[in-house]
Amino acid sequence: MHIHLDVLGGIAGDMFVAAMLDAWPELVGTVERNLRLAGLDEDVQAVFRAHNDGVLTGSRFDVTKTGSEQEASGPDPHRHSQGHGHAHHHHHDEHGHAHPHEEHVHNGDHSHSHHHHHTHWRDLRAMLDGSRLPEGVKRAAIAIFHELAVAEAAVHGRNVGDVAFHEVGNWDSIADIVAAATLIDAVGAKSWSVGSLPIGRGWVETDHGRLPVPAPATTLLLRGFAFHDDGRHGERITPTGAAILSHLSPATSLGSSPRLLERTGIGFGTRRLPGMSNVLRILAFTEEGAAQDRVGVIQFDIDDQTGEELAVALDLVRAAEGVIDVTQTPTFGKKGRMMASVQVLARVDAIDAIGALCLRQTTTLGLRSRIEARTVLPRQSVTTEDGIRVKLADRPGGMTAKAEMDDAQGVDRSHKARAELRRRAEAEALEQKS
């Protein structure tokens, strides 16, 4: 599995989780279970829900706390959270992601008070390390939080262990990051990639003063990543989104090797961007290998060549280098004429040569060709003690066997004898592989 992150509107912790769950909705229960195992209180609720902005459909991931100011007032368009050392921050950017680290709900004049209690990174790490989370999830969550702590320590000149996060943000920070770690661990992608990132514009107001977008911690986390300016204002990449990217160490492009698209997911942020959807898109690919391939398909119809001539012609095509298979199907053409519809499967690099051969060997005046994806089951051939070749196929439901009819036929064998010989050969082959 290879996963490409298409950062269209931006990336934050909640957007990453929403996009991944949109692609793998069957993992919602796993995420909910791990949030409890992480030690979050029962009054912390994570809600995965469908969302439509009028242009695209996708999902949102919302974390609320029973009795919290956020739940009382409803979702707020200025929902942010960032950690900058010890101080808490009042953000007024234009994007509106949920940023794990510090949570501040700004309503109206932004005049509500905050309690100045802090949790140091060393204590948060100890809590996660001592939790009942699966080891893979625990390691990923600690690694993402550590990325944030290191960046914040560098920005504010502190020791990593002394970086502290405001208590109001602890529950939602843990929820977003544990959910992200759960999905990263559960999907088990072999590799990740991300395209150019939107840099955003403007400033955020904090207790440290006015800070530029992207925030200083974000720029430290994303050194080496490609950026572009799409002309839209606001914070487009949050520190948590940046920490997730840094943890994943994605390639800068999908690469040139053919891949098969298996799943897609769209995760929404909390704000609308002018002229575009505020989304992160997930594209999950299966890498091509022995079980997957590309195949050339050549098709044409024949209505003026005798069956005898066509049989010889198609045998010659079938024997040509690069041909995988040739089939013909009787059908009706114009004026009610019986004709043969021919399909040739060939290697992609042999399409032109095989097409020319078809034009030489048959009376067709034209043909159609295309390239298609082909899934091929892993298979092998074994020979039994009776000299019967058996083809074994590894199917999702288990291995199956098929004896070669050419090896089972004989002038003095009846239908029943041939069937019994093939049955024994297939059973023997399966026993050899078990």
Helix percentage range: 25-40%
Overall, the morphology is: elongated
Taking pLDDT < 50 over at least 5 consecutive residues as the criterion, the unreliable ranges are 69-117
Tell me the strand percentage band: 25-35%
Spatial strand sequence of the major β-sheet: 6-1-12-11
Number of helices: 12
Q: Got a strand count?
A: 19
* Protein structure class: alpha+beta
Mean pLDDT: 82
What does the main sheet amount to?
4 strands, mixed
How many domains is the backbone divided into? Answer: 3
The rounded Rg comes to: 30 Å
| N- to C-terminal distance | 28 Å
Biased composition (Basic residues): 80-92
Organism: Rhizobium freirei PRF 81
Biased composition (Basic and acidic residues): 93-111
Keywords: Nickel
Characteristic key phrases:
12 helices, 4-stranded mixed β-sheet, 3 domains, Alpha-Beta Plaits, alpha+beta, 4-stranded antiparallel β-sheet, elongated, 434 residues
What can you see in these coordinates?
The protein is an alpha+beta fold. The protein has three domains: 1-64 and 117-284, no CATH class; 292-371, Transcriptional regulatory protein pf0864 domain like (Alpha-Beta Plaits); 377-430, no CATH class. Helix content is 32%, strand content 28%. The protein has a four-stranded mixed sheet. The radius of gyration is 30 Å and the shape is elongated.
Give me a quick take on this structure.
The chain is of the alpha+beta class and 434 residues long. It contains twelve helices and 19 strands. The strands form seven sheets. The protein has a four-stranded mixed beta sheet with strand order 6-1-12-11. Strands 14-15-13-16 form a four-stranded antiparallel beta sheet, covered by helices on one side. The protein has a three-stranded antiparallel beta sheet with strand order 17-18-19.
